[in-house]
Design goal:
- The chain is built from four helices and six strands.
- The protein has a single domain, classed as Alpha-Beta Plaits (2-Layer Sandwich), CATH 3.30.70.20.
- With 92 residues, it is of the alpha+beta class.
- The strands form three sheets. It has a two-stranded antiparallel ribbon. The chain has a two-stranded antiparallel ribbon with strand order 2-5.
């Protein structure tokens, strides 16, 4: 079974009230030039909008923390989702 098929088994409980990833847009735009989070997220959740602001689709987060570690400018606040929310890994 390939990785795409395995990830397709996962279930996401979406917390529509609270994101577990917050972006400090001021820090991101003023100090970050490389924007590693665009390249390191295995779920490819980060993007730049038409205004040059970083966006994240936290609903599909695999909760690995790679983005938090890769953000050298500390523009991200990352923590695990609240209890009952987030990714539920399924094995098959």
């Amino acid at each position: 079974m390939n990785i795409e098929a395995k990830l397709g088994l996962d279930v996401f409980q979406i917390d529509s009230e609270q994101s577990h990833i917050l972006i400090d847009q001021e820090v991101c735009q003023s100090r970050c030039t490389i924007r590693y989070c665009l390249h390191v997220c295995p779920a490819d959740l980060y993007d730049l909008d038409e205004n040059g602001e970083m966006t994240v689709d936290y609903e599909g987060c695999l909760e690995c923390g790679t983005c938090f570690i890769a953000c050298l400018e500390e523009a991200l606040e990352w923590h695990y989702p609240r209890a009952g929310y987030g990714v539920q890994y399924r094995f098959g």
